[in-house]
Structure formats: C-alpha cells, structure tokens
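Database export, one record per block. Field names are fixed; values are copied verbatim from the stored entry.
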Amino acid sequence: MNLLWLQSGGCGGCTMSLLCADSRDLPGLLGGAGIDLLWHPSLSECSLGEAVAVIEDCTAGGTPLDILCVEGSMLTGPDGSGRFHVFGGTGRPMVDWVRALAVHARYTVAVGTCAAFGGITAGGMNPAGAIGLQYDGDQPGGLLGADYRSAAGLPVINVAGCPIHPGWVLETLLSLAGDGLSPNELDTFGRPRFYADALVHHGCSRNEFYEFKASAEKPSDLGCLMEHMGCKGTQAHADCNLRPWNGQGSCTRGGYACISCTEPGFEEPGHPFAETPKVGGIPIGLPTDMPKAWFVALAALSKSATPQRVRANSVADHAVVAPAVRKTGLK
C-alpha cells in the first residue's frame, strides 16, 4: 500500500510523537505490513522536485494512493484562497493539493486534532481560517465536506489527539493494511473506536482518590485532579492510561490534568486549562453518562467515607501514609 504524508497548519508534534513509538524501526514496521512511504516532509530524503513529482503523479492517478495522511489543520485564509499556506516550490495552496489527492485516496487519515477538527491553530479569532479535513470544530464540513467518502467508502478517519499517541496512528495504519476499517469501527466523530471507546479516566493511577473525592488542591498533589485542577479525564475519549506513552507516561500520571485534547474545541474551553469551573460548588464538567443529582449524592457519600490515609495523601506530593497492614480474613 502506498502512503503519502503531508503536513499543514501545525507544529509537527504528531510526527515527533510517532517517532517515539515503541518500535525501534518505524520504517521496518510499516514495510513489514506492506506499506510503502512515498513521501513524508520530515522523514524522506528525496529532493523537493522529486517529492512534487511523486505528489503530481498521485493526483494524476499514475501512482495508486492507498493512504493519504494529513497532519495539521487546513489553512483556508485569506478569504478562502488558502494562500496562507502554499506548498513550497509549487505556487499552489496546500488545500488545493489535499482536495486533489483526496479524490484518489483509498483512505484519508487526519493525523492529530488539528487535521481532524482545526485544533490549536483554529483557536482565538482564527485569522488563518484553520479547519479540519471533514470537521470545523464539532460541525461536519471542513475542507472536504460532510459528504466526502474515500475510494473505500469511508469518511475521513480522525486519529485525534494533541499530539496523537503513536500507537493510535500505527494501529490505524496496520488495520488499513490488513482488512481495513469498517464504518462501524469509527465513532460519531470518525475516530477509531479501538481507542475512542475508552475514557482517559479508565486506568488512571489516581482513581482511588477519585472514588473518595479526595481532591488535589495544587499541581504537585497526588489527589484527583477533577474537582479543582480542571481534569476532564472522565469525559475525554482516549485510552491514554490504558496504553501509556512509552509504557509509563500520561498527562495525569505526570501530575497534569487531562485537557480533553482528542475532542473538538478543546483548545478553547472558556476557562484556564488547570482550573475547574463550578456552579454552586459543583463542577460544570461531570463524568460522561452521570446525572448531576447522582454525582452530588455520591460525592457527598464518598467524602464522608474517605479514609484518613487517602485524605492525607491527596494533598501531598508523595504518599505520607501507607496502607494499613492487617489480616484480610481471606484463606
């Protein structure tokens, strides 16, 4: 399968994350799956002229294009011309190239939240006109339109994340190189369900503190980050704590709140990322699928039953009270 990778309005962080994949031989892994990387602007050695020739051949249908990966948002400004991002050496806006290539692509993959929904580059007044491939924020449309389907009959596959987990991209590419993905394997935002059907909350190392609503009060505390520190792990669709970066790391494990970077519009939450907005002392962003009344009742009950060990450790930067050692009664 032929893979072409383009970069547009973004920082290149998704490629940097991909290079941190567990595999020590990324080209070998792709090659072993039968994926031929035609060109990547950061990883390929060919000259600009050679790269343009490859891309032109794909747009003309001469070289089959099985997978089109786009990293970074589509910059449509100024005034819809796309001239804010002209593909170097071609005089042609990147948005025009992507439209032309998407017509021939068997699969089209948005790598990262910028390519999927607009992301960081769409924040603020968005003078660059940054949008995603098939979404503008949470609204269908984007550059290719809500009705776009690739040659395989799929919408844009949105591997959202800022940056992406390398495993999300590799698993998507290896799936496409195998039996492909069916529409049922994508969620309502076109994200692969193998990671989007999980919540960041699942597997979080702070879950004991969450259960007892023993909350962190400052960045270095061990407690749950939801009540005061802005964590959206109970709402964010991703498996970050089930498959940590490099086998060990995640935002919450590193002491920083989940900012829900796999979701459209995460870049403008309307409040500081590390603060939890509340109404009447109740966090606005409650766990997915939980009615407010239930949460308030359970939170009050949990706090009344919080063990002293959990309460003390939640506002410390290391465990100050160890679990009690006693007979469990188990035989």
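Remark 1: The CA atoms of residues 158 and 191 lie 5 Å apart.
Remark 2: The chain has two domains: 2-195, 198-316.
End of record.
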